[in-house]
Amino acid sequence: MRPKINQLFCAIALLTLAVPVWGRTHSTTAYSDGTTTIAGTQLKAGDYQLKVEDNGTELQVMQGGKLVAHVPVQWVQLPNKAKTTEVMLDNNQITEVQFGGETQAVQIRSNQ
Question: Is residue 13 part of a domain?
């Protein structure tokens, strides 16, 4: 009986350690024409991958597999599920990223 209890505790401990692995990464591709900025960083013309972990506080901006910038974000509740993934702009500045099928979006916080 004692070995089964020990096995049970080991299994629970492993599951507890594995929980962070189950987190999901949200990502999308955005195109900059050379005038786009994100949190004060100017993005040269080209395609960019925007990635953020579930409940993460930073959005990674990648181009060609290289990290170009990481910007602070905060999660905001949307009134409804986003129908599609969208990158929101205000005066050529990325301000928010909504992910299709999700009720939360990330809002870009300015570094300045």
Answer: no
pLDDT per residue over 24-48, tens digit each? 899 999 999 999 999 999 999 999 9
- Pairing relation of β-strands 37-38 and 93-98? parallel
50 neighbors 60 (Cβ within 8 angstroms): yes
Phi then psi for 91, rounded to 5 degrees? 55, 50
Question: What is the residue-wise DSSP string for 19-62?
Answer: GGGG--EEEEEEEE-S--EETTEEPPSEEEEEEEETT-SEEEEE
Taking the model in full, what pTM does it have?
0.76
* 4 within a domain of the structure (yes/no): no
Show the domain range for 57.
23-108
Nearest to 29 by CA among 53, 58, 62: 62
pLDDT tens digits for range 50-92: 999 998 999 999 999 999 999 999 999 999 999 999 999 999 9
